[in-house]
Structures are given as structure tokens and as C-alpha cells.
């Protein structure tokens, strides 16, 4: 295994994605809306397609705006269907995102002659390519630093999310745990919901252009759920989720470099391995978390039972 | 209307288009090709009558095959989708179908190393089923053994398994000995290029799913509606849960390789949700959901065969969604129109009963103060206004409506009284209210000062039989006294 500077950038991009996702993701997990990331990342396809058909170019900004708007609309439509039609929220989410994806697919096929817009590229992304796309070069002493464009974008999104979470920490917390209490305290829980959804949509769109949607879904939910098993405090949960996500990016990339040669293959997809790495962290927490781990609790119960038996 | 707008200028209507995209998507499917052909200068011909007839009557072998396959798949997934919906697990199909991917990759590798040929359908399907079921089992296990909820568990399994699948496929693509091309059919489907073998497989699984659901109908019904009761009756709830998910997995896996991931997710959710609007009876819902799934498969496949450049999977999803939105608005049992109408009717009834009771209570007070015989005496409008917490506008509307129903008549401009029929109705309403209050007071141990509110939430729904039962239980035939003082708190408030 040889480590190039490009590998550093892949890990940095992955870590920035993880931090950008972990902040809104923690609230998604607490609000039991984890599948929203999945829904939004599928549903933005018509936004991309319409932006392309309107501007006629793969300009990043218009596509970004189109996708983010449709992403927020996914949340709005889901809300409408579940409240007007009295449909289970999971089901209405499923209906909305499959419908929007189908519309997107139709639009893309209509324009297929002119577009290299490939749904596969949206789903998998390629962090390796993103790392080569340099936007800014500077040097520190002899060392030439070439910053990839996606690192800058994801850095900005991470900062933005951090800013929103800090600025609205109290509001987000109360409206996540107790929307009724939030309302009595004069906080508009509905607005907080849509603020969060906008955050998720913007993050998803910004990240999947660089790294693909699959890692976005993984980074939104899995590190946050892992942190949820480790702590009861929201602030700590946000920090832990970010750290676990960033570590997963590092370990995922190491796995992608190390595992394929071991079993006789040339290479593999880094983003896939990063998703697997988040899963490994979750597995550890699920089984061995100090307070909420499965095995920890079983052992604790057993020790209590035997202590009682001795006592009596 | 929409297509002309889009022709006029795509850029300007972007916002509008997005706003109407969901309710209009069935129109979208048809207006799409026209508008974009004009935009990009590509010719587009409407299909001739002969070609429409050819598709409708299923004369071409390929059309026949595709339509039949999607019809059967829609039928089967609509059926099992009902159980998922009622169990509030609609997105399980989503998690399951994503979790199949690593199985496909691993099965391909194993196939190549063991038999030298990786793309044997049986091996790939077996692999997909194994990891799919493993993923779903993990979701159940995570939910059961940790504080992580259903949704997060599904999100974790979905993303981690799909990530693993992407990683495995990424390795396979560089495999020297075999070509992995074609594996992506499992994600995007190949609806239009199905072969007879796919049809046989689909119908086999569909029939099996149908038979299993019929055999286990009673068990599944109880599991959907009252899991706790099923468990207390000593039924193997977890086993039934797993059985249900195996059915879902079977439909998902065969659907996945023929029509693709997104379509199979839509097929599991949308027809069941649409059927729910039409009925409250599970059997009817199962049949209806199967039919809706089947019909949208048939229509979608037909339209996509007629018009060029329309992928069948996407059109079928849109057909199902169109049926869903139609059902959501017009559904006979839970549709929006139906519910808002009955809500309005109930609101009117409640308003009328409140008004009549208020008038009666004021009249009653007059008899008592002036020791008169119960009779329909005149009351003043201001007294009525202060009796309940009505706003002047609300009361004006109520009185106007009651006037139209011939319950209330004006004596002069500040005084009104009940009509003949209104007096009878007011008597009955007040009596029902008090009977219910006394029942709550004597039988349900609710304090006299609290019964007014509680009675209010039930009395408007009391049926005649219920009132008879109350009468016999309380042994009261005439008008009872109110168990609490009327209007005291409101007077103070005023």
C-alpha cells in the first residue's frame, strides 16, 4: 500500500462529508426520520434534469439549486400526503420519492442524446475523481497544496451546518424532543422541521455530486445512530457522530486500499467501503456500548441477577 | 394547458412546474415528449390507431410478455404491500431491495470461481435473497435489542449493505476472467427486454405469494392490527413476522431483476396505500391493492410500448402514483373529499346542538326563576351570546342556519325563540347531554364539575339505541336536572 497526497485528499473529502452529514443526521435519527436522506437523494433527480434542460449545460450551480429545491419539496410533499391523506409517513415518503425519481428518469431519457447525466453516477459518485478536480493551488514552503473543488464545497457546507446547529441549538433540540413544548414556548416546530429538511437537502446535493448518494445516506444515519447508543446528551452526540463519521472515512479508504489485494482483486469503490466502515462502528456500539450495548446489558443483567441470588 | 406553457418558455415556468409536478404527473408522462421535442427540435409522431390497437389487444409477443409480467408482479406486490403498509413498514421494501446488492456481487464471484460462469440467474437470485433477508433480519434484531428505532435501523442496513454491494461490484468490475456487464440490471431493471423465463419466474413467485397470504390471512391480519393480542394468544409473532418478510423478499428479488429497484419499491407501497382510501375491510383492500398494482403495470407497460423513449419502469411508477392521487382525493372511505364532507356535516351538527341546548338552558332558567310551567319562552340575543364562548359572528351564522332549518325564529330584532320543531329538538338534545353527564358522573367516577366537557365530546355521536340503553341504565324517562350549575363560570368570565 502506497499513500499518495491524493489519498489524503480522499480522506479529507470523506471526513468533510461525514461532518456535514452528521450534524443534520443526528436530528433525523432523533426525530425518527432517518429514511429522509434516502428519499431526498433519490428524489432530486428531476431537479437535476430540469436544471439541465433549462440551462442546457452541466453548470454546477443551477443543478445544485434545482436539486436542492426538489429535495425540500420532497419533504413538503411527504408532509402533505401524510397529513391530508392520513397515510403513514414512511409510505408517503416512499410514494413521493419513487414518483419524483420516475419523473427524473423520464426527463433524463428524453434528453439522453445530449446529456451525460447518468443515474449511476448520481448513485455511486466517485470520490477518486473528485479528489483530482483541483480548484485552488497554493504552496507552503516547498510543499505544493492542491485543494480539490469538492473539499471546498463540502467545507463550506460543513461550516454552514455547524453554524445553523449552533445558532438554533435550543430550538432544534426542543422541537426534536417535544414539538408541543416547543410550540408553547413560542418556537415554530414546523419551521424548524423545514429548516432541518433544507439542511438535509442542501447537504445531500452538495455531497453526492462529489461522493455519490450512497455514502451520504450512510453518513447521515449510521454515525448518528452509533453516537445515539453512546450518549444521552445531544451536544456530545453531535460531536461523537462527527468524529465517528470522519474516522469511518479514514478507515473506509484504508479498507479500500488494503482489502481488494488481500482477496485477489485490483481495486474497489472507496465510497462503498466508507459506508461499510460506518457499519462496522455501528456494530461495535450496538454490541459493546457502555450503557446501551446489547452484550453490555445482557452481562449487566446477569451480574445483577447473580448478585441478588448471593444477597438472598 | 401545461405543455403549451412549457413550450412558451421552460425557464420562466420552472417554479410553477415544480409546484404542480406531483398532482399532475400523469399528465406529465404524456406531455413530456411533446414539449421536449419542441425544445430540442426532435420530431415526434403520435402513434397511429393501428399501433394503439396492436398494443391494446396485445398482438405483439414482446408487448404481451411485458404487460403480463408487470401485471402479475403488480398483483403480487400489491398484495404483500398491504401487510407492509398496515404493519407501518412500507420502507422495508426499500431497505430489502438495497440489501440484495452485495448478495448479487458475492454470488457472481462465487459463480465465477466455482462454475466459471457468474451470470446464472438462479445463483444470483439466491445470493440476493440471502443478503436481502440478512439485512431485514438485522433490522428486526437492531430494533429488538437496542434503543435504535425502526427507521434508523432501516437506514443503517440500507446504506451499509448497499455500500458493501457497491464495493463488491467495484472489485468485480476489474475481474479478469469474466465480464460483469449486465449486473446493473438488478438496479435499473430491464422491463422492456424481458424474456419468457422471467415471466415464468414472476408468475411462479406471484402464485406462491398469493397462496401463502391466503393460507396465513388470519394470522397476518391479527399481526397487523393487534400484535400484543396475537402474542398473548401464544402465537409465534416473530416467526410470522419473518414469514411475512420472506414473502416480501421473494416478490422483491424476482421483481428487482425484471423491473428494477425503484419500481419494486413503488409497487410495494403505492397500490396498498391507494387501496386503503377505498375500504376499511382487509380482504377488499388486499384484492383492490392487487388489482391496482396489476392495472398500473398493464397501463404503464402499454403506454411505454406505444410511445418511444419512455422507460417502462418509470411510466408504471407514474401510473401507480396517478391512481394513488386519484384515490387520495376521491377515495370512498378515507379520501380527502369524503372525510372533509363528513367533518363538515359533523361540525354543523355539533354547532346546531350547542345552539339549541343553550337556548333551552336559558329558557329553563327563566321557568325556575319565575316558577313558570316549561314552555317555549322568548329569550334575548345578548343572553344567548354570553351563555357560551361564541363570537358574535359565529353566533350570527349559527342562528341564521338554524333559522333556515326552521328551528329558531326571531320575535323582534334582539329577541328570539324556538320554533315548534326546534323546541322538541332542543329538549331531546339537552336530555341526551344530561343523561350522558349523569352516566359519567355515577358510573365513570368523573367529578360533576368536569362532566360537561367530557359529555360534549361524545354526545353528538350518541345513537338512538345508545340513548335507550342510557335511559334504562339510569332509570330516567323525563328531563333530568343538570348535575352541575349551568353557565356560572361563563358568567363570571363575562
UniProtKB/TrEMBL annotation, chain A:
Q: Which Pfam families match?
A: ABC-3
The portions of this protein that span the membrane are 6-30, 39-57, 63-81, 93-112, 124-144, 151-169, 200-222, 234-259, 271-289
Chief subcellular location: membrane
- Where does it localize? Cell membrane
InterPro entries xref list = ABC_BtuC-like (IPR037294), ABC_TroCD (IPR001626)
Q: Which UniProt keywords apply?
A: Cell membrane, Membrane, Transmembrane, Transmembrane helix, Transport
Q: Which domain of life is it from?
A: Bacteria
User: What's one GO-annotated cellular component?
Assistant: ATP-binding cassette (ABC) transporter complex
Report membrane topology.
Answer: Multi-pass membrane protein
SUPFAM superfamilies referenced in this protein's UniProt entry, alphabetically: ABC transporter involved in vitamin B12 uptake, BtuC
GO biological process: one example:
response to zinc ion
* PANTHER family linked: ABC-TRANSPORTER METAL-BINDING PROTEIN (PTHR30477), METAL TRANSPORT SYSTEM MEMBRANE PROTEIN CT_070-RELATED (PTHR30477:SF8)
Per the record, the similarity remark reads: Belongs to the ABC-3 integral membrane protein family.
Tell me the protein's name: Metal ABC transporter permease
Gene source species: Puniceicoccus vermicola
Amino acid at each position: 500500500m502506497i499513500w499518495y497526497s491524493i489519498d489524503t485528499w480522499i480522506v479529507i473529502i470523506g471526513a468533510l462529508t461525514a461532518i456535514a452529514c452528521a450534524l443534520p443526521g443526528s436530528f433525523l435519527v432523533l426525530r425518527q426520520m432517518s429514511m429522509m436522506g434516502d428519499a431526498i437523494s433519490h428524489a432530486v433527480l428531476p431537479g437535476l434534469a430540469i436544471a439541465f434542460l433549462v440551462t442546457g449545460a452541466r453548470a454546477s450551480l443551477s443543478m445544485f439549486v434545482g436539486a436542492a429545491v426538489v429535495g425540500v419539496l420532497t419533504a413538503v410533499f411527504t408532509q402533505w400526503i401524510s397529513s391530508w391523506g392520513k397515510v403513514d409517513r414512511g409510505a408517503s415518503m416512499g410514494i413521493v420519492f419513487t414518483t419524483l425519481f420516475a419523473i427524473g428518469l423520464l426527463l433524463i431519457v428524453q434528453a439522453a442524446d445530449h446529456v451525460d447525466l447518468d443515474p449511476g453516477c448520481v448513485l455511486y459518485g466517485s470520490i477518486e475523481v473528485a479528489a483530482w478536480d483541483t480548484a485552488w493551488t497554493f504552496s507552503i514552503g516547498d510543499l505544493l497544496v492542491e485543494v480539490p473543488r469538492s473539499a471546498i464545497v463540502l467545507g463550506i457546507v460543513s461550516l454552514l451546518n455547524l453554524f445553523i446547529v449552533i445558532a438554533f441549538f435550543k430550538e432544534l433540540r426542543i422541537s426534536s424532543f417535544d414539538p408541543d413544548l416547543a410550540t408553547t414556548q413560542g418556537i415554530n416546530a414546523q419551521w424548524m422541521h423545514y429548516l432541518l429538511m433544507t439542511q438535509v437537502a442542501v447537504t445531500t446535493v452538495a455531497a453526492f455530486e462529489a461522493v455519490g448518494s450512497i455514502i451520504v445516506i450512510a453518513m447521515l444515519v449510521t454515525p448518528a445512530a452509533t453516537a445515539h447508543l453512546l450518549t444521552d446528551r445531544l451536544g456530545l452526540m453531535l460531536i461523537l457522530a462527527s468524529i465517528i463519521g470522519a474516522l469511518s472515512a479514514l478507515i473506509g479508504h484504508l479498507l479500500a486500499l488494503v482489502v481488494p489485494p488481500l482477496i485477489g482483486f485490483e481495486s474497489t469503490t472507496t465510497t462503498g467501503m466508507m459506508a461499510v466502515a460506518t457499519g462496522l462502528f455501528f456494530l461495535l456500539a450496538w454490541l459493546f456500548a457502555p450503557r446501551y450495548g446489547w452484550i453490555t446489558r445482557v452481562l449487566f443483567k446477569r451480574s445483577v441477577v447473580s448478585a441478588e441470588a448471593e444477597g438472598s | 394547458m401545461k405543455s403549451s406553457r412549457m413550450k412558451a418558455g421552460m425557464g420562466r415556468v420552472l417554479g410553477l412546474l415544480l409546484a404542480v409536478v406531483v398532482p399532475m404527473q400523469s399528465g406529465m408522462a404524456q406531455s413530456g415528449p411533446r414539449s421536449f421535442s419542441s425544445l430540442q427540435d426532435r420530431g415526434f409522431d403520435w402513434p397511429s390507431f393501428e399501433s394503439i390497437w396492436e398494443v391494446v389487444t396485445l398482438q405483439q409477443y414482446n408487448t404481451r410478455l411485458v404487460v403480463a409480467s408487470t401485471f402479475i408482479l403488480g398483483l403480487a406486490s400489491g398484495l404483500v404491500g398491504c401487510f407492509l403498509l398496515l404493519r407501518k413498514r412500507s420502507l422495508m421494501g426499500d431497505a430489502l431491495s438495497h440489501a440484495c446488492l452485495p448478495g448479487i456481487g458475492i454470488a457472481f464471484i462465487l459463480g465465477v470461481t466455482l462454475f466459471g460462469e457468474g451470470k446464472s440467474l438462479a445463483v444470483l437470485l439466491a445470493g440476493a435473497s440471502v443478503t436481502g433477508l440478512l439485512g431485514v433480519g438485522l433490522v428486526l434484531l437492531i430494533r429488538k435489542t437496542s434503543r435504535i428505532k425502526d427507521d434508523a435501523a432501516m437506514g443503517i442496513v440500507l446504506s451499509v449493505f448497499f455500500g458493501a454491494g457497491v464495493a463488491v461490484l467495484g472489485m468485480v468490475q476489474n475481474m479478469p476472467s469474466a465480464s460483469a456487464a449486465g449486473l446493473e440490471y438488478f438496479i435499473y431493471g430491464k422491463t422492456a427486454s424481458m424474456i419468457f423465463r422471467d415471466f415464468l419466474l414472476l408468475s411462479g413467485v406471484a402464485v406462491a405469494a398469493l397462496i401463502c397470504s391466503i393460507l396465513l390471512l388470519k394470522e397476518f391480519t391479527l399481526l397487523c392490527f393487534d400484535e400484543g393480542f396475537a402474542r398473548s394468544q401464544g402465537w409465534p409473532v416473530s416467526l410470522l413476522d419473518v414469514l411475512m418478510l420472506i414473502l416480501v423478499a421473494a416478490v422483491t428479488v424476482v421483481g428487482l431483476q425484471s423491473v428494477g429497484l425503484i419500481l419494486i419499491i413503488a409497487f410495494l407501497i403505492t397500490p396498498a396505500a391507494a387501496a386503503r382510501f377505498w375500504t376499511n375491510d382487509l380482504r377488499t383492500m388486499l384484492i383492490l391493492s392487487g388489482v391496482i398494482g396489476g392495472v398500473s403495470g398493464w397501463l404503464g407497460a402499454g403506454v411505454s410500448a406505444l410511445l418511444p423513449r419512455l422507460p417502462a419502469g418509470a411510466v408504471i411508477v407514474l401510473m401507480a402514483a396517478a391512481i394513488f392521487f386519484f384515490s387520495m382525493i376521491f377515495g370512498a372511505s378515507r379520501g380527502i373529499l369524503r372525510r372533509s364532507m363528513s367533518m363538515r356535516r359533523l361540525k354543523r351538527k355539533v354547532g346546531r346542538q350547542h345552539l339549541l341546548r343553550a337556548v333551552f338552558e336559558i329558557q329553563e332558567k327563566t321557568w325556575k326563576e319565575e316558577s313558570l310551567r316549561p314552555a317555549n319562552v322568548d329569550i334575548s340575543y345578548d343572553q344567548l351570546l354570553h351563555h357560551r364562548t361564541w363570537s358574535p359572528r359565529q353566533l350570527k351564522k349559527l342562528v341564521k342556519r338554524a333559522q333556515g332549518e326552521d328551528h329558531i325564529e326571531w320575535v323582534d330584532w334582539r329577541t328570539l325563540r324556538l320554533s315548534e320543531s326546534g323546541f322538541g329538538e332542543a329538549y331531546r338534545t339537552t336530555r341526551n347531554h344530561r343523561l350522558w353527564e349523569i352516566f359519567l358522573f355515577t358510573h365513570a367516577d368523573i367529578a360533576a364539575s368536569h362532566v360537561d366537557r367530557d359529555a360534549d365530546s361524545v354526545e353528538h355521536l350518541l345513537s338512538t339505541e345508545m340513548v335507550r340503553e342510557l335511559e334504562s341504565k339510569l332509570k330516567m324517562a323525563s328531563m333530568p336536572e343538570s348535575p352541575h350549575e349551568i353557565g356560572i363560570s361563563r358568567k363570571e368570565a363575562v
